[in-house]
């Protein structure tokens, strides 16, 4: 079926990954430092990722593509959410906690001083 879908120009992609956060369907992943549309079925073709791209590497085109599959996307996003939660649970501290630990290290071991 011919429909609207994103196209990513790998030559323009700088690997910032802002588009992966902007894509609510999880259709874009970073692979070898470049944004890649991983599956046509995941892309709804609405282009929420376009404004996030600082290099204009993403365009909406019309081409033959598999239909957008909302149910598959819901399952995929739930799996990604579980995997992310599992990963953060295994780390042992939140990002804020890690920053506090790093700051304490810098103060104690590197004799950093905090200016007031």
Automatic annotation (TrEMBL):
GO molecular function ontology, one term from the record: metal ion binding
PROSITE patterns hit by this protein: 4FE4S_FER_2 (PS51379)
Pfam families associated with the record: Fer4_7
Domain 4Fe-4S ferredoxin-type: 4-33, 34-63
Keywords: 4Fe-4S, Electron transport, Iron, Iron-sulfur, Metal-binding, Repeat, Transport
InterPro entries: 4Fe4S_Fe-S-bd, Fe-S_Ferredoxin
Protein name: 4Fe-4S dicluster domain-containing protein
Record keyword Transport present: yes
